[in-house]
Each structure stands twice: as C-alpha cells, then as structure tokens.
Amino acid sequence: MQWKNTQGVCWVAVDWGTSNLRIWLMSKDSQVIDHNSSDQGMASLNSAAEFEQVLFECLETLLVDGDTLPVVCCGMVGAKQGWQDAGYSTVPHNPLEYQKPVALPTKHSQLWVWVLPGLCQQQPADVMRGEETQIAGVLCGHKDFTGVLCLPGTHSKWALSQAGQVVSFNTFMTGELFALLSKQSVLRHSIIDDQWSDEAFKQGVSDGFNNPAQFTGALFSVRAEDILGSGAVLFGKARLSGLLIGMELAGTKQWWQGQKVMLLGDSLLQSLYKLAMEQMNIDVALMDATQMTLAGLTAAYEQQG
Asked: Which of 21, 86, 277, 285 could form a disulfide with 102 if both were Cys (CB 3.0 to 4.6 A apart)?
C-alpha cells in the first residue's frame, strides 16, 4: 500500500469489512494525514494469521524502531471469522461512551492493535458489527439524539436511539436479496445495469410498502412484463430495488413513523433511500457514513488515550 504522506502519523484508524479494507493515517490531534483502501477484506483472507500480515505490509513503512503504532479497528476484523472475535456489547448501550476495545496479541511488537466490539440484542436476536462505530460517530455531534438511525447496505440496520443510547435495532437483508435476485434468479434476464427510471423505482416502493403480502408475486411481474414485451426490462432494476426498499419501509413503519431519521450510507444507497423516504413523508437527515466511521474510531482512540 502506497502512501503520499506519512509525516506526523500518531495512530491509525481501520475499517476492515467483508469486502474492503480502509485505512486512515491520523495525526496527534486526530486529523487525517492520508488514507487508502484495498480489496483485502475478510472474505479474501484464509486465516486469522493473515490479518496481521496484511496490516503489517500496509503500515510497514511507518514503523520506526523502538516506537509502537496504535491501530484502532472496527468491522468484520472482530468477527469469529476475522482476526479475533471481539464479542458484542448488549443493548441498551451508548457506543460512544462505553466502548471496550479488545487488544489483540501481535507478532510484530511495533503494532498495538485494538478491535471494537459489535452490538447485540437478545430479543429479538440481532447483531451488528461496524455499524455501531458509525452510530458512535453520529453521537459525537448529537450526544442526546432521540430518534431512528437507518444504515442501508448489504444488511440494512435500523436502530432506535433514546437520549444517546441504542435501545433496540433490526436488520433487513435488503441489499443481499437484491444481489441474489438480480444476479442468480430468473429476474437476472430482465435487469439491465445501466437502465434506470425514478418513476419505476417509486412505483416499486409504493407496491412493496402497500402490498407486502403480494411481494413474491410482484417480483415475478418484473419478469412477466419483460416477456410480454411491455418494455419493463429497461426498468427492471429500478422496480426490483423499489419493491425491496418498500418492503423494508413497511417492516420498519413502527420505527420511523413520527420520528426523525438519520440516514447513513454510500452516496447511491443514500439517494435511493432518501427518495423512498420522501415518498413516505419521513423526516430524514443525511449523514456521511465514512465521516461517521472515522469519527467513531477517533472517539474510541481518544478514550483509550
């Protein structure tokens, strides 16, 4: 991993997910000196031992004899399949005030590595790993936030916060279902990646939200309309996405109705969820997910200091 600037690095922030590894070099006052990323996520590694070697190779040029380099990590690096299981904190929980990072043993004595735990809920059973750090980042600027946080992704998270504590949350496999249906089901024949229609998306949201019991039938209609030559193939991706997000909003209505929603996600997902939420007259505010991850990691580092 190549770095443009390594002067004044005091510590390192790491978001290590299933698919990607993101690293920020941080100054003494927690300003970003440089940042980088790679596709060396958890899924690309075969053993726990490979995590340390990958991290060492990424940071080797920063290590100075006799000095230790603190590294604070979040994400799937702390999963059972990761470097080391960092466990979970149980709701109700304030991820900003009560972070208890797990120190990892390392073969390279210059690396001082901590991994943040995830968050779990016993009833109904649910877990998150990585998103709790983004929530901590939100709470840095909204310490007593009461409302709902929506974190769309492969597994979308909805978390209820009361006075800065996460009291409950719920996970929806919306992103994973979209990937499976669009790439491995019969619907793959009716989806063109570069064709989109906001109107088709919004109609899908409406159908998914208002008629969830007809969801699987609505899914097949994407294929049937294509076969019958209605031209829906041009907008199959938009309709499928709308149906799935509409179903998610139906399942979370008791969460967002009458509440303010903080929406964190990458730019594409954020724009889609915002469009869907506005259709439901949801009071939504956008937050930058990357900035919140970094803010959460910074808060954890400063607590350890």
From this structure: 86
